[in-house]
Amino acid sequence: MTRFSDRIRRRPVLAGFLAALVLTAGCTLPAFAPRAESEGEAAAPGTAPTWRACPEVPDELVGRGATGMRYECARIAVPRNWGTGAATGATAGPGAGETFEIALIRIRSAKQRDRIGSLVVNPGGPGASGVDTAVYLSFGPGFGGLPTEVTDRFDIVGFDPRGVGRSSPVKCISDAELDASFGYDPDPESQASFDGFVDLNRRIGQQCGAKYGDQLPLYGTEQATRDMDAVRAAVGDDKLTYLGYSYGTLLGATYAQLYPQRVRALVLDGAVDPRQRLLAGSESQAKGFERAFDNFARWCTANAGRCPIAPDARAAVTTAIDKARVSPVRGRDGREATSGWVFYAVISSLYTEQGWQELARSIDALQGGDPTGVFKLADAYAEREDDGHYSNMFDANMAVNCTDETEKPTLEQIRSVQSQWRQKYPLFGPALAVGMLGCVEWPGGRDPYPTGKATGAPPILVLGTTGDPATPYEQTPALAAMLGVGRVLTWEGEGHTAYPQTPCVTRAVDAYLVSLTVPREGLRCPAR
């Protein structure tokens, strides 16, 4: 894999929402939405889509739709290759004259009044589904979704970016290879183990190159951003109102640079610094996850009654990973909790503060011979279903990240920083170092996105969380400064992303989305 996915895995918004629905609907929820194609013809580029009722989407995701919400779906066709500044698609080069289909969902409240337009949402990844996210957010504040102040004024529009989920999905990594990748030693220290991980990534790259060839560079961020403008046009808005999380902040920032005059309001939550290349970005995440783990460990010490691996959580987790290298615990189905699976359980749990207690219990149970909790956490991160099948989350993640990346470190550089980062960031540094192998062995050309000012755009709201592991807080002011029109809002909380977590954050974002009221400079919201 490349850098840890910076998507929204289980924000408290969704965690609380799912728990509440289990109780109210009395149903067993699937872990993830089905990736079936929506019915109907895709609207040709530049033409209005045909919307159809699609209550089956929330039904399949969570068992029912939100009370008072209407769900409609459509598909639009976009040029595979927009070309540089092209309006109707490139006339030469890969994908010329061909199209991708983009799946959309539009959710409208029966209580809507004084409609402003559409709020387009993206959860990040890259590779996560915006259709799924829009459904989750439609359930309102009682379930951790969007506030009624927003749903009463906007349609909620989600889209799966090109190559993701329901939108002409890219799929070229087998379930067995994903199992091998996630289960691999996160710090392959011996040369033989390191070479084995190189070989695995090389096989994956060769397979994806053989299947998609010169089409691979068409999955990059700039192409997907131009699709976003087609989404804006398809929903009939003159200007874009947008809520982007994690990698979705990169899409939003790129949009502001390409189409500054078409921006109404952009909320960029969990900011990515577009100027960080592969090495710097990987080290930034290593630092962010180490900091988040230290926060977890301190919580564990202070809450020993809720943390069965207290008083030394770091030692307990490190020991669990070390033991899994030589003697992995086997589950009832025969699956082994290798060091990689234990490691990704840790990664998964750090995306929300609510995941901390789950991690502690899972590591404690693993010590007692039960890997169930570890697999539950790791599988949620990997989008691995109980039957061993994966979504295309990480196929798309690789295709986008590696297309965007201009930097390609050598194997010798990776081996060197693996050793250096092991000293600086002992739990997460080596994994972030060897994770760069995915793009080193990825075929196809590169298509980097722009990294400049959004000259002519209105103020853009950039949110950062001080305890964010996946998109460390330092990237928030960096993105705001790069855009030149960014206004920083800080949440002094834990986990990945901030809105709508607390009243302070929610009030500020709602006022910006609805009334275009920009928060005062330097506003910081307390953790709770």
TrEMBL record:
Domain Peptidase S33 tripeptidyl aminopeptidase-like C-terminal: 425-525
A GO term, aspect molecular function: hydrolase activity
Signal peptide: 1-33
Domain of life from the UniProt record: Bacteria
Name of the molecule in the record: Pimeloyl-ACP methyl ester carboxylesterase
Similarity comment: family membership: Belongs to the peptidase S33 family.
One Pfam family linked to the record: Abhydrolase_4
Keywords, ordered alphabetically: Hydrolase, Signal
